[in-house]
Write a structure and sequence with these properties.
The structure holds two protein chains of two kinds.
Chain A lengths: L1 H15 L4 H9 L5 H8 L6 E3 L22 E8 L2 E8 L10 H17 L3 E5 L10 H17 L5 E5 L2 E3 L4 H4 L3 E5 L4 E3 L3 H8 L5 H5 L1 H6 L6 E3 L2 H14 L38 H8 L6 E3 L7 E8 L2 E8 L10 H16 L4 E7 L6 H5 L2 H14 L4 E10 H6 L9 E4 L4 E3 L3 H8 L7 H15 L3 H5 L5 E2 L5 H11 L18
Chain B lengths: L3 E4 L3 H13 L3 E6 L7 H5 L2 E4 L12 H11 L3 E3 L10 H8 L3 E2 L4 H8 L1 H10 L7 E2 L6 H11 L3 E9 L2 E6 L2 H19 L4 E5 L5 E9 L5 E13 L2 E7 L6 H17 L5 E8 L5 E7 L6 H8 L3 H10 L15 E8 L1 E2 L5 E2 L2 E2 L2 E3 L4 E2 L4 E6 L6 E2 L6 E9 L2 H13 L2 E3 L5 H9 L1 H5 L6 H5 L13 H20 L16 E6 L2 E11 L4 E7 L6 E5 L7 E6 L2 E10 L2 E6 L2 E8 L1 H7 L13 E3 L4 E6 L6 E2 L4 E7 L2 E6 L4 E6 L6 E2 L4 E5 L1
Parallel strand pairs in B: 1-2, 1-4, 2-3, 4-5
Antiparallel strand pairs in B: 6-9, 7-8, 7-9, 10-11, 10-13, 11-12, 12-15, 13-14, 15-23, 16-17, 18-22, 19-24, 20-21, 21-23, 25-26, 25-32, 26-27, 27-28, 28-29, 29-30, 30-31, 31-32, 33-40, 34-36, 34-39, 35-38, 36-37, 38-40
Helix pairs in contact in B: 5-6, 7-8, 12-13
Classes of the chains: A alpha/beta, B alpha+beta.
């Protein structure tokens, strides 16, 4: 028996040794942690339950028969984050560069099946070189199996991907189908085809960072939802995110103890809206003063900054926040902002996270760039997302709610549960100046008359009461009381039951 | 007594005057510009009158508008506060024409003392000792250089109509005299509408000590002790105190009597201040007389128990001074810090914007310590570019100087301001300075103690365990509620981990929890670093609080807390440090993380504050030596010269005069 136990120990330590000390050191020299170190940071101490530690590949081509490392380049298992179960896999760059073989894929697939069956979030840590070329089509098959499960799990359990090194080729599509992608600055990149191929095909010369670094994917491409300074920071922030999320689409929202007064009055919000309607203000101040403890986990903070999306808590329970940001492009809705917010609203709806929307929107962005880019269909995504969402929807219009953008931003007409407006709100087809220029085109030459007409339009429509008279606004509230009113509304909606007609799935304008 | 008075000012001083008037049962009228529609003084007053656009020259400085406001509201008297119209004799004259009383000295006294050149002639006549200088008006830069040569460097070039450090420059050479002359002149014109400047001898290592006087319309004049205001930056007072640690009783009396003699000589009939420059040997020379309520008057009020605004109102009404010289007793020590909207880490450039958070420390009297905060803003107020960047005056009073300083430090630690940059880190650093605590002062104090400007103070051996303890205490609370999250795989054991590591910037400090449990209030016994004994930490802090207050080893501590990823930024006594708390195994891995160099911005000249480019003083391709002038940016009426920090060549110039620039906007790029 003793020898048998010793053999177990030997095989375990062989697996734990991964790619060996030398490769570990190289990994550290690049500023990266090893797969098992990353798991240590991500999970509660002693909670990791590894599976498939002895799995080895079965490839015999290109001399692979002699090269076998137990685990085959990916560490899989489950553990807890603050006591709550998660499943995770971590690509091990020190073993075959983390490349995906048939058996490597099988390990991930097995884990995906477990996570879905047991209804717990799944987290993937990526740091790998793509398909294992020696395996050919078997690797491709493996990818396909992984992709299929990503799709089946989507909307059922939260799926989170963290890119912590290279992630290229077939490897990128699994993260692309998960709920969130995070990247580590300077040490990670993501692209379908790398700089070498790019050069051969298009003669473009780019570095990996320029092609797919965190700076690109968090600003330009919006592939990534956030980036972090280093491995430790990224993993600890993933822990923070998981604390916000329910385990699956039928689970209760996590509720955390808070000492923040649910009726906290913020007098300074009464002066948040500047006297000059064209002067911007920082919508983030409103968010931070309304949510519990000023704790806001922002998604895509550096992309489409004209709209803010993120997770926060009210009375200790998770809410999704969507808010126009007047500081950037006057808070206008454009292609990027619509796509960003639409995806976030759909995420919240998947997991029963109520959506709180703060509105100050002057409309959709005009111009050929936007129209040629398909603003109609992209704008429709956000409209669609709000309209189909059955989670509690609370809306506060702080200033402008003009034109079609008014309808889009979680309006009453899209089944908004509680639609509030600040006294500074202006709900109208457009701003007074624009409206008068159309209505009184014949008087345009007469500045005095136009000024008078503008003032008249301003008086008539630049307030929330016209909408409130029609019941489009449930109440006009004092800015200072925003937190307490939203809390009350959320409480009233806690048992909300609403179902869309049965359908196979909807046909959102993609 | 008056039934209703108008306050021809804004900000903290308007609020300050309203408070006293209200206590005396007098109704108040505020005036406001476009920029002050929502200002606190407007809110506080019984009535408010709009007097025009934001620019002071078209609102607060327009005598007719104030007079009209009085007539419209029936105000019988006007308190001018400080600045604005407070020292313009035309103002009381215009008021008098309409039968309105000016709560301040008679116009004759203002004329005699208001002009720095005239006032010196008066002082000489009254046998008050004065500083050598040229009392005429300087005609041009060369004239300034010639006069300076006669007096001998260093010299000070000052605006005749000036005050508050504006339009004032010290020169040590002909070149500096030339530059100082033109800068002073330009600033004097912009700030006071009067570009006359004069030159006088600059006394080395001087201290600034001033005597508060109080006169009535019946010929009585008394002095209320002195204030020392030696802690100045660019001639702008930063910290003031009363009494002065320099003076003895005999010097105090001598200065007080000279001040009273001067006041009597000009028939002074209100509150006023006679400023002296004092040598370290307790010699003193008359500098100027301020014929108004001084910004730093609260320190005098706290050591004398006399409300100066009340006295001003009473004597203006014609009452006889009820206080005789013999009644004036100085009790304890008072210290005041001026809290400015300026960025101490960027050479104190003005910072404007919305006060996203503004939570001053609690005011009151606890039996020994008095905390008073004179302010004109609330959370949500806008600090605009139009007016003085002072946000508040924090004053503490205690039986002894050191206790007053300690109380001041604690109050500053608890002062929350977000949204703009402010000088509290600098103030807390100043109050922690040994030299300040020992009272070894001079007006060069800041230049000497901070020769390279103000940099974040390093975490010292004393602060390190305190900050580590506070960081740990917060993490324990955060962690304990996460342990109670629903949906756990197995119930939490609710036992507190024993071993932790607190990371302060790059320093990893092991901390062991000896005993205790995470609850509110929290109480823990911990061993910090290599300390031999555990200390007890107790606190009622809950997540979201921006202040951690508690006791560590029996002494009270208040630390500012702002969230950063996976931790907090802690601010305490001029120190600003990133604190993260980890388990030892994560700390070990964290040490493997690479250090990243911040992006290189030295190739650019960035606009250090929101402002207007006044001039670009180089051309593209020009080679510039370190220290040479590159551009001038104006903000808050102050012209700021941007100089080359090293020898360089100008590559491209992106800004031009008249451009309005945001903070960190690129003005020019270097090769």
């Amino acid at each position: 028996m003793k020898e048998i136990l010793a053999e177990l120990e030997r095989r375990r330590s062989e697996a734990w040794a991964g790619g060996g000390e030398k490769r570990f050191a190289a990994q550290h020299a690049r500023g990266k942690l090893t797969a098992r170190e990353r798991i240590q940071v991500l999970l509660d101490e002693h909670s990791f339950e590894e599976i498939d530690i002895y799995v080895e590949h079965r490839c015999t081509d290109f001399g692979m028969a002699d090269q076998k490392v137990p685990g085959d380049g990916v560490v899989t298992g489950s553990g807890t984050i603050n006591g709550r179960t998660v499943y995770l896999f971590a690509k091990d760059f020190t073993v075959f560069g983390g490349s995906l073989s048939e058996t490597h894929a099988a390990k991930i697939v097995k884990l995906q099946d477990m996570a879905l069956r047991n209804r717990a979030p799944i987290i993937g840590l990526f740091d790998a070189g793509g398909a294992r070329i020696q395996e050919g089509v078997a690797a491709l098959g493996g990818y396909g199996e992984v992709f299929q499960r990503n799709v089946l799990a989507s909307g059922v359990i939260p799926q989170i991907s963290v890119i912590m090194g290279p992630c290229a080729g077939g490897d990128v599509y699994s993260p692309a189908m998960t709920d969130f992608i995070f990247m580590v600055r300077d040490t990670s990149y993501m692209f379908v085809t790398g700089p070498d191929v790019v050069k051969t095909v298009t003669n473009e010369i780019v570095t990996s960072e320029e092609l797919g670094g965190a700076s690109i994917h968090t600003t330009k491409s919006s592939v990534a939802d956030g980036s972090f300074e280093n491995d430790v920071e990224a993993l600890l922030q993933v822990r923070r995110l998981v604390d916000f999320l329910p385990a699956h689409n039928k689970a209760e929202l996590p509720e955390i103890q808070t000492w923040d007064d649910q009726d906290r009055v913020e007098l300074s919000l009464d002066t948040l809206i500047p006297d000059n309607p064209n002067k911007p203000y920082d919508m983030k101040e409103l968010i931070l003063k309304v949510v519990d403890e000023g704790d806001f986990f922002e998604i895509q903070a550096n992309h489409a900054k004209n709209i803010l999306c993120g997770l926060a808590r009210m009375e200790g329970r998770t809410v999704g926040i969507v808010a126009n940001q007047p500081m950037v492009l006057a808070g206008v809705l454009d292609i990027d902002a619509s796509k960003k917010a639409a995806r976030f609203v759909r995420f919240c709806d998947c997991f029963n996270i109520p959506v709180v929307t703060f509105v100050d929107v002057p409309g959709f962005l005009p111009g050929t760039a936007q129209e040629y880019g398909g603003l109609i269909k992209h704008g429709a995504k956000l409209l669609f997302a709000y309209a189909e969402a059955t989670v509690p929807k609370i809306t506060v219009i702080t200033r402008k709610a003009y034109g079609g953008a008014y309808d889009v931003m979680s309006s009453k007409h899209l089944r908004g549960d509680f639609n509030y407006a600040w006294p500074t709100a202006e709900i109208a087809v457009m701003g007074a100046k624009g409206a008068v220029e159309i209505l009184y085109r014949s008087e345009l030459g007469d500045a005095a008359k136009i000024a008078e007409r503008t003032a008249e339009y301003q008086r008539r429509f630049a307030n929330p009461f016209v909408a409130a008279e029609r019941g489009y606004i449930d109440d006009v509230i004092k800015p200072r009381a925003t937190r307490s009113r939203i809390n009350r509304a959320l409480r009233l909606c806690r048992n909300k039951q609403q179902e869309n007609p049965w359908k196979k799935h909807d046909n959102i304008p993609l | 007594m008056f039934k209703k008075i108008l306050i021809a000012n804004r900000g903290e001083i308007a609020c300050r005057v309203i408070k006293t008037a209200r206590r005396m049962g007098i109704k108040t009228v505020a005036v406001y510009s476009d920029a002050d529609r929502d200002a606190v003084h407007v809110e506080m007053a019984d009535e408010a009158v709009h007097i025009g656009p934001a620019i002071a020259a078209e609102s607060y400085l327009v005598i007719d508008k104030i007079v009209d406001a009085c007539l419209k509201t029936g105000a019988e008297a006007v308190h001018p506060g400080y600045g604005f119209l407070s020292e313009r004799s035309a103002f009381p004259k215009a008021l008098a024409e309409k039968g309105i009383v000016f709560i301040g000295p008679n116009p004759g006294a203002i004329d005699a003392m208001g002009d720095k050149i005239e006032s010196k002639k008066f002082a000489n006549a009254a046998n008050v000792s004065t500083v050598p200088g040229y009392l005429g008006v300087i005609e041009d830069a060369e004239h300034a250089v010639r006069i300076a040569g006669e007096i001998g460097y260093p010299v000070m070039i000052k605006a005749s109509a000036g005050g508050g450090g504006k339009g004032m420059r010290i020169a040590w050479s002909d070149a500096e005299a030339r530059e100082g002359y033109s800068l002073s002149k330009a600033e004097a014109a912009a700030s006071f509408g009067d570009d006359r400047v004069f030159v006088e001898k600059f006394i080395v290592d001087p201290r600034h000590i001033e005597i508060q006087v109080l006169g009535d319309k019946h010929g009585n004049v008394i002095y209320l002790g002195e204030r020392e205001c030696s802690i100045q930056r660019r001639n702008q007072k930063v910290i003031e105190e009363a009494p002065s640690p320099l003076l003895d009783e005999a010097t105090r009396r001598a200065m007080g009597e000279q001040a009273c003699a001067l006041a009597r000589a000009v028939g002074y009939d209100s509150a006023g201040t006679v400023e002296f420059v004092a040598g370290q040997d307790k010699s003193f020379f008359f500098l100027e007389m301020n014929t108004r309520l001084q910004v730093e008057h609260p320190v005098t009020e706290l050591i004398t128990g006399i409300d100066l605004v009340e006295q001003m109102i009473r004597v203006a009404y014609g009452e006889k001074l009820a206080i005789r010289q013999a009644d004036v007793k100085l009790d304890g020590w008072a210290v005041e810090s001026r809290i400015y909207a300026e960025d101490p880490f960027r050479n104190f450039l003005p910072s404007i914007g919305r006060l996203v958070r503004y939570r001053p420390p609690e005011e009151g009297f606890d039996g020994e310590i008095t905390v008073r905060n004179d302010t004109g803003v609330v959370e949500g107020s806008e600090i605009s570019m139009y007016y003085d960047p002072m946000i508040a005056k924090l004053v503490t009073h205690a039986p002894t100087r050191l206790e007053a300083i300690e109380a001041q430090s604690a109050a500053l630690d608890a002062f929350i301001i977000d949204g703009i940059q402010h000088n509290i880190p600098f103030l807390t650093s100043l109050h922690a300075s040994e030299r300040w605590r020992e009272g070894r002062l001079s007006t060069g104090f800041i230049k000497e103690e901070y020769p390279d400007g103000f940099l974040t103070s390093e975490v010292d051996a004393e602060a390190k365990p305190l900050l580590a303890a506070a960081a740990l205490a917060m993490e324990v609370v955060r962690q304990s509620r996460l342990d109670a999250l629903p949906g756990r795989l197995r119930p939490s054991t609710a036992t507190l981990a024993r071993d932790w590591v607190v990371k302060l910037d790059k320093d990893y400090i092991p901390v062991t929890v000896d005993e205790g449990f995470a609850d509110i209030p929290l109480e823990l016994d911990v061993v910090i670093g290599d300390a031999a004994e555990p200390v007890t930490i107790s606190s009622r802090w809950v997540p979201g609080d921006l202040l951690w207050s508690g006791e560590i080893g029996g002494s009270a501590l208040t630390v500012q807390v702002r969230p950063i990823p996976n931790g907090s930024e802690l601010r305490y006594r001029g120190i600003s440090v990133k604190a993260q708390v980890m388990s030892p195994r994560i700390a070990k891995l964290d040490q493997l993380m690479p250090e990243k160099a911040p992006p290189d911005t030295s190739r650019f000249l960035l606009c250090p504050m929101p402002g207007l480019i006044v001039s670009i003083d180089v051309v593209e391709g020009q080679q510039v030596k370190a220290g040479e002038m590159l551009a001038i940016v104006e903000a808050m009426k102050m012209q700021n010269v941007l100089r080359a920090e090293r020898d360089l060549t100008v590559k491209t110039i992106k800004g031009k005069p008249g451009d309005s620039m945001a903070v960190d906007a690129v003005i020019m790029e270097f090769a």
